[in-house]
Design brief:
Chain lengths: ~230, ~120, ~500
């Protein structure tokens, strides 16, 4: 019964979407907006990665919202799991093997470095704050796997999360007061193309996002690990 | 053949959407529902990316001098997908946390067993 | 000139501060939402006279409109943002005494982010940005519904999350189709290009977007989650979900249908959907024995009435619909706040357990009665002029169909009156077993309830206080060309 209704619903949606896709041919030339961004992004934002200049330049407000969504989810996850009763330590978990724990000692700083590289170079190469943040969180995941007793410093994570979020908002508000008087407008020098210190506020925002996403995802992993013991 | 060539990404994307939707409509195990949501999200993201593709396009990054803007794909859908992926992850994380709590209070992941709330 | 972006950036910044404040003092964290909503309320009211003359369009990032995200602060946006800030302020005062247990710092942060999401939805002029803020609103409400952590809360939150996530996936497909068709995400730009488009894909995109947003707006077949979520959440959250969240969802639907798609041929369909939602909501509410579920179904009914009024699409009826939004926010939020403490004292949500409350909690019961009278539409409360306006606007056109339908609306109002009077009868005219000592809600909670009571009476007696805003809001929604003109210049 349920399956039949589902299939009928799918058929209706499928036919509708199928017809409308005929109006959007695959691989057709770009839209006006896409063209504009590709032509002007280097001049407008100083970033050579056009996707970055859209994400943190033209549509930076979406990104602020996106960071907030992740913040909401991390908080919500904490709130949902916190009501389950007090925090329990993770005792009685078998320690990890020598290979894992020794490898972790080598890999942990390298992964952190790699994550930092990805988010500081977001305006030049593929990558950015979210990707870099996810890499950083994976370093913490490795720590959990290799030494099950360890916990992240919760105050430190909260502090990083809040302060890096505040940096993002503050940059936006500075744009409103300095320079062109628009929220999230660039007020720093754009520098030379294709160098690390270029693109005005973009690398600063991406560093803030990288730290925020890294600490949030590490917190999410921490909360879920604790709960599943 | 040219139809398949023109629409293969759309077909793939909406195939994933259909699989995800069907799982959500038919299955009653919470983890399977969450997997369905995840597949659905992937399909939607793939659809968004396909909308921005141009034939024989490259990534819109001027990583070295001399790259021509003409051959680059539309950057907007890529930016949108970046946002959509993060939102998808956020929903997924919250859903998994709720699944943990659901299992704790009911001892099962079967939604049909949850009967606190019925009219 | 003050930029409307401050309405979003300042509360967001303060919300990020809440965990830091919470580290210092858990109690102080509860005051941050009070400050943020107070600032927003002052700013919204200060901006209102400006936007009545000319809407403020803020291009974020300093790029020209179709290329940057645009905030559009028109009369509707400012009215709703003021309403969100007002309800947010009163409910955050109430929460100071109501939310005592659990992870309170996280509660206050999520609560503020919920309000930021709602404000963002009503101010944005960009379809994808609408999606992002919509998700902030939805995800924080999923988490807050499960705040108490009992079985009912978890189950309701799971249902809400699954249906909401499905809705947002459909919404995103719709937005993708719009971008594919028009190559832009700016609402005004899409609206300007709408005329030349092929109608079938546009219709599909509209259907997907309306269904996606309709889950949150509780339009009839999509509202299965609502009674569970609104009844299982803590009462302060129920007040915000019923008073603000669904109306924001509805605003998003109206904005898309009226401004972006300009779908005047679809409006009759929405008139019927609204009526259906109204009748089903009120009839289900009548059948409930659980007071919070009854209020939740009553919200569905009220949303149906607003859809009905707005979809008639005359200046008067849209004014009436917006007025009904205001009166529903005030009335329903007040009812949930009052019921919150009544349920807390009696320990049960059954209506029968509220017997004798009139003596045990006289002031709370009085506030409940005012809210109920206002929702039913009795003078001199705010529900009366709003319902009167809707009825009059439907009758003025001399259309037989509308005259028949308005009869059904009045029938639904009678049903509404019946179930509210049943509760009031239980509260005042039945003796509860085991007379307990008189003990009213704490002073802060009573204060917040009486803010709503005063507003309900004052606006009910002097509806002219806000009719200017409502009328220019109606013309903003009905005149697409002005919207397009003021954004694209």
């Amino acid at each position: 019964m349920r399956a039949t209704v589902g299939l009928i619903l799918l058929a209706v949606i499928g036919v509708g979407v199928g017809i409308s896709l005929l109006a959007i041919p695959f691989g057709a030339p770009k839209t006006e907006i896409g063209d504009y961004y590709i032509e002007n992004a280097r001049e407008d934002t100083g970033a050579t990665n056009v996707v970055t200049s859209v994400v943190v330049g033209y549509r930076a407000f979406d990104t602020l919202g996106e960071v907030t969504v992740l913040f909401v989810a991390a908080l919500g996850l904490g709130a949902v799991l916190a009501t389950a009763g007090g925090k329990r330590g993770r005792s009685g978990v078998e320690p990890a093997s020598l290979i894992l724990s020794a490898g972790n000692i080598f890999l942990f700083p390298l992964i952190l470095l790699f994550g930092a590289y990805i988010f500081t170079h977001g305006h030049l190469t593929p990558g950015g704050g979210f990707q870099g943040g996810a890499v950083i969180a994976s370093a913490f995941l490795l720590v959990y796997l290799s030494s099950p007793g360890k916990r992240i410093n919760e105050s430190g994570a909260t502090l990083t999360e809040s302060v890096s979020g505040l940096v993002f908002v503050a940059i936006g508000l500075l744009g409103l007061t300095y320079g062109t008087h628009y929220f999230l407008a660039n007020f720093l020098p754009k520098g030379t193309l294709n160098t690390l210190f270029s693109a005005g506020i973009i690398p600063v925002i991406y560093c803030a996002i990288g730290l925020k996403v890294g600490s949030e995802l590490a917190g999410v992993v921490d909360n879920l690990m604790e709960e599943t013991e | 053949m040219s139809f398949l060539h023109d629409y293969v990404y759309y077909i793939g994307a909406f195939g994933l959407v259909a699989i995800g939707l069907l799982i959500i409509l038919v299955k009653r195990n919470l983890i399977k529902l969450i997997i369905g949501l995840s597949i659905l999200d992937t399909g939607v993201n793939m659809f968004l990316i396909s909308v921005g593709y141009i034939n024989r396009g490259t990534a819109p990054i001027f990583s070295r001098p001399g790259l021509e803007p003409d051959g680059m794909v539309d950057p907007v859908p890529q930016a949108l997908v970046l946002t959509a992926i993060v939102i998808g992850v956020a929903i997924l994380a919250l859903a998994l946390a709720l699944a943990v709590r659901f299992y704790k209070s009911y001892g099962t992941l079967d939604l049909r067993k949850a009967k606190e709330l019925r009219w | 000139m003050v930029s409307p972006v401050l309405l979003l950036a300042v509360p967001l910044g303060l919300a990020l501060c809440v965990p830091l404040v919470g580290k210092v003092s858990r109690r102080a964290a509860g005051f941050v939402p009070v400050i943020a909503t107070l600032l927003n309320l002052v700013l919204s009211i200060r901006l209102l006279p400006t936007v009545l003359e000319e809407p403020i369009v803020a291009n974020l990032g300093g790029f020209p409109p179709p290329f940057a995200i645009t905030l559009f602060a028109g009369p509707v946006g400012m009215l709703l943002s003021a309403l969100i800030a007002l309800a947010g302020l009163v409910v955050s005062l109430y929460a100071l005494s109501y939310i005592k247990t659990g992870p309170t710092v996280r509660y206050h942060t999520l609560y503020m982010l919920l309000l930021v999401g709602a404000t963002g939805v009503v101010l944005t002029g960009d379809v994808f940005n609408l999606f992002v803020f919509f998700e902030i609103l939805c995800i924080s409400s999923y988490a807050l519904v499960a705040y108490v952590g009992d079985r009912a809360g978890i189950e309701a939150s799971v249902k809400y999350l699954i249906q909401g996530a499905l809705g947002s996936a459909l919404l995103l497909i719709g937005i993708g189709l719009l971008y594919g068709l028009f190559g832009t995400l700016n609402m005004a730009d899409i609206a300007a290009r709408m005329g030349s488009a092929d109608p079938v894909p546009v219709f599909v995109a509209m259907a997907l977007i309306v269904v996606g947003l309709g889950v949150e707006a509780a339009i009839f077949p999509l509202n299965a989650w609502l009674p569970d979520a609104h009844s299982s959440a803590p009462s302060s959250i129920s007040a915000i979900l019923s008073g603000i969240a669904i109306q924001v969802g509805l605003y998003a639907v109206v904005r898309m249908v009226f401004t972006v798609f300009g779908a005047s041929s679809m409006l009759l369909f929405f008139v019927f959907m609204g009526l259906l939602t109204l009748l089903i909501g009120e009839l289900c509410a009548f059948a409930q024995s659980n007071i919070k579920r009854m209020l939740a179904y009553s919200s569905i009914g009220q949303i149906g009435l607003i859809i009905f009024a707005v979809a008639i699409a005359t200046t008067d009826s849209v004014t009436g619909g917006l007025f009904q939004m205001v009166s529903h926010t005030l009335g329903k939020a007040l009812l949930f706040l009052a019921v919150g403490y009544m349920v807390y004292r009696s320990g049960s949500m059954e209506i029968s357990s509220l017997e004798g409350m009139g003596r045990r909690m006289p002031l709370t019961s009085f506030a409940f009665t005012i809210g109920a009278f206002s929702l039913v539409g009795l003078p001199p409360f705010v529900g009366f002029p709003s319902k009167l306006l809707i009825v009059r606007s439907a009758l003025v056109g001399q259309e037989v169909l509308l005259q028949v339908l308005i009869g059904l609306v009045l029938l639904a109002t009678v049903v509404e009156g019946a179930y509210f009077f049943r509760v009031i009868q239980a509260v005042y005219f039945k003796k509860g077993e085991g007379q307990e000592a008189r003990q009213d809600a704490p002073p802060m909670a009573l204060f917040s309830m009486f803010v709503f009571v005063v507003l309900i009476v004052v606006i009910g007696v002097y509806p002219n206080l806000i009719t200017d805003v409502l009328e220019s809001g109606a013309s903003e929604l009905l005149e697409r060309a002005n919207y397009i003109g003021s954004v694209l210049g």
